Amino acid sequence: MNQSSISFRITEFIFRFIGLFIFGAVGFSLGGKLSTFLGASDTGEMFLYQTVFGMLGGLSGFILIPYITTRPARAIRRSLGHLSAETLFAGLVGLIVGLLTAALLAFPFSLLPAPFGNVLPFVGVIAFAYFGVSLFVMRQGDIMGLFSALSGRGGEGGSSSSWTNLNRNILLDTSVIIDGRVADIAKTGFLPGTLLIPRFVLNELQYIADSPDGLRRQRGRRGMEVLAELQKIPSILVRISDIDAEGVREVDDKLVVLARQLKCPILTNDFNLNRIAELQGVTILNINELANAVKSVVLPAERMNLNIFQEGKEHGQGVGYMDDGTMVVVENGHDFIGEYKDVVVTKVLQTAAGRMIFARVEDENGKRKK
């Protein structure tokens, strides 16, 4: 049970006792009036009515008060927590515009003959407030783009909104936190927006860090260190939130549901989560795909200088790695293990695991060695 749930239960318990005393007092008073109405002249009989109605009122208040105080407030808070800052701002602006419009029309409406002059001002407030919020939320992207353009922060040709870029949320899953590369990417500034970490992701990370298995425990602690590093980066806002997906138990499923509700992408390197999210129309930012995309591009017949430091799987092969970590299989490199040699690319293969490059060692005359 997290701190938010404990705080809610304590608040609900306090409100129950407040309701018990208030409803009990009302019941006690009603019991006295009812006894008088029924003609009870005996003081003991009147006290009996007051006691019974006071107990019934107190019990009703103890049971019913959360349903008219804390629980509706919690539901409203949960609903607002699922909305992005952009949506909330657009809704607030729409509400203000709607109320101002209703205020301007209230006086003309009040001059109409009864009963229209008495009813239409109130109806106008409700109607214009509703339409203002609906319209501004529906066109929030255009409105934020307009604000960005007016403030001189709009994108090229006014087609993109810096407000959207700076205020969008990016959900992080457990695997990408443990992976650690997200901290390096964040330092480069390629992750505009708020890195949103739900509490259940943090709980899963803590569970891994407390695992009896040494390897899992080490991975979990590494994830904690990555989070601490992310929070120290001045250009990145990291927010740990209590938002949750009701009725869903698995962490991956919760992330997908929240991403759909918040209309934000998920940053991950989990292949299964990637597939599940794409099937449900959720945008995925996959670090593995990013790593493959930024690797050096080489073409057949291109030459490079490579350190061949181990033998390959096939006879006569040697293996080396480029600066970005791309593996290069040197077909005739077995005899040159431990040396830097000039090689020429013969073939480039793109696989699910990444890019593989095949090459051959050149001799001193620039010809490929057999």
What features would you describe in this structure?
The protein starts with a helix and ends in a 9-residue tail after the last strand. Helix 4 (about 85-110) crosses helix 6. The chain has helices at about 5-35, 45-70, 70-80, 85-110, 115-140, 140-150, 160-165, 175-180, 180-190, 200-210, 215-230, 250-260, 270-280, 285-295, and strands spanning about 170, 195-200, 235-240, 265-270, 285, 305-310, 320, 325-330, 340-350, 355-360. By secondary structure, it is of the alpha/beta class. The protein has four domains: about 5-75, no CATH class; about 80-145, no CATH class; about 170-295, Rossmann fold, CATH 3.40.50.1010; about 305-360, OB fold (Dihydrolipoamide Acetyltransferase, E2P). The chain has a five-stranded parallel beta sheet. The chain has a five-stranded mixed beta barrel with strand order 6-7-8-10-9.
Class by alpha and beta content: alpha/beta
The arrangement of helices and strands along the chain is HHHHHHHEHHEHHEHEHEHEEEEE
Oligomer designation = single chain
From the N-terminal CA to the C-terminal CA, the straight-line distance is: 68 Å
How many E-type strands? 10
The proportion of strand residues reads: 15-25%
The major β-sheet equals: 5 strands, parallel
What is the CA-atom radius of gyration, in angstroms?
A: 33 Å
